[in-house]
Design brief:
The protein is built from three helices and 17 strands. By secondary structure, the protein is mostly beta strands.
């Protein structure tokens, strides 16, 4: 008969107790609300110079809806501000020649969100030239809970995305990969929220890439935000897609990403300081304060992406 040493039993029970203690000491808190997009959107103006001014409230004709999300349509020639809501089954959407935003019900094959950009209607026959703006179609929200990075154990992130189609309207001679792309990604603003820190109020962009027509899987990217007149000039740190489990998106196939973003954000902070964009490297000074998700379309492409089961939660050390 195999002997079981009491020391082995004690170590096993101790490890269980440590795990249980960690679970009790940590709380899961949502960083953002309405992750199925059911309450509609506050629509931006086409120019980002308008800031957070609201061009229209897209509430699916339900005045009781109080949107948590902004819908940003920067760079468009065709605003959704005067477009009527349309319905079909469990789906509701706003659509014009240049874009479509659809929110599907819980039992719909179109749940939760579809963002479609038709850049041919924006650009016409001439592709974008250097220095010119490009169409965006993004959902954006400020964090409902703000936690400094040193208080977090994890940032639990999950999303499923599906590329419905992507179609180019440029000839090979017109297409310049340095200027023209179809990109679907998420960006977080990581901001210095410590009023006593030298960088108070400064921030950098932390990117999570899902699709870039120029690559099978989007690579890492680190650079200053430039390329158009309203660029922020802040540091952009986009983590390599493969580091998060991103695989090539083919039409109609779902990709699910589950990751802890906290370590990547801390690496991005160190890189921002190393490159001179920020002075303070103290994790206590910084927090996730905003996110956006959607298309940037500097190329003449039509494309649609479906998003479902989005979850972004802070695993926070308990005050107790």
């Amino acid at each position: 008969m195999k002997r079981i040493h009491l020391s082995h039993i004690f170590l096993h029970l101790l490890s269980i107790a440590i795990v249980a203690t960690n679970l009790i000491a940590a709380e899961r808190k949502p960083l953002f609300l309405d992750m199925q997009f059911q309450h509609g959107f506050l629509l931006s103006y086409p120019s980002s110079a308008q800031g957070r001014a609201v061009a229209a409230v897209l509430d699916f004709d339900n005045p009781n809806n109080k949107p948590h999300w902004r819908l940003c349509q920067w760079g468009t020639q065709h605003s959704l501000a005067t477009v009527a809501c349309r319905r079909g089954g469990a789906d509701a959407w706003y659509e014009n020649d240049a874009k479509k935003v659809l929110v599907g019900g819980a039992d719909s094959p179109n749940r939760d969100l579809i963002l479609e950009v038709r850049a041919k209607s924006e650009c016409g026959v001439r592709p974008r030239r250097r220095g010119e703006s490009w169409p965006h179609l993004l959902v954006e929200q400020d964090a409902t809970n703000v936690y400094r990075l040193d208080r977090l154990q994890r940032i639990a992130f999950e999303i499923s995305v599906r590329l419905l189609y992507r179609r180019s309207h440029m000839t090979p001679a017109q297409h310049d990969p340095g200027l023209h792309a179809a990109q679907f990604q998420m960006f977080f603003i990581i901001k210095n929220v410590n009023p006593d820190a030298p960088d108070h109020g400064d921030f950098f962009w932390f990117g999570v890439p899902f699709y870039d027509n120029r690559h099978d899987v989007p690579p890492a990217y680190m650079a200053r935000d430039i390329g158009k007149s309203d660029a922020t000039g802040k540091f952009i740190y986009t983590v390599a897609g493969r580091a998060l489990g991103v695989t090539p998106l083919t039409n109609g196939q779902w990709l699910t990403v589950r990751a802890d973003l906290l370590g990547h954000i801390k690496s991005a902070l160190r890189e921002a300081v190393k490159r001179g964009y920020l002075k303070s490297a103290e994790e206590h000074d910084y927090a996730v304060v905003n996110m956006n998700l959607g298309w940037e379309m500097p190329g003449t492409f039509d494309a649609a992406m479906q998003v479902r089961d989005l979850r972004i939660e802070a695993v926070v050390e308990s005050d107790g």
